[in-house]
From TrEMBL:
Family, as annotated: Belongs to the phD/YefM antitoxin family.
Name this protein carries in UniProt: Prevent-host-death family protein
Pfam family, one: UPF0175
UniProt cross-references to InterPro entries, sorted A to Z: UPF0175, YefM-like_sf
Amino acid sequence: MDNLDVFSVRDLRTRSGDLLRDAERGQLALITKHGRPAILAVPFDRRLLEQGVHRALALTLFEQRQLTLAQAAKVAGLSLDAFIDLLEPLGLPVVDYPADELVDELEAAL
């Protein structure tokens, strides 16, 4: 995951500032203990307050292209239609293909 910094518990002693900077930029971070995921740090921001943890996490991971639309809907605990409805007022596109990839997808569909 490109948009996810990973910190070990030991790293937190020397890199806590990096963790806070990630949060201020809206970036998720994973904290590991003995190489295994232990904590997912989700930024405390307006989206979290308005949408709750599951939806905020799903929206962030979908926006960062870490989850598909269907996966994000599942994380959010919503039907696909309800998740799509959630995207519109936030200004997040449901489909965001680069032009050349969209052409390929359309050709494949025909």
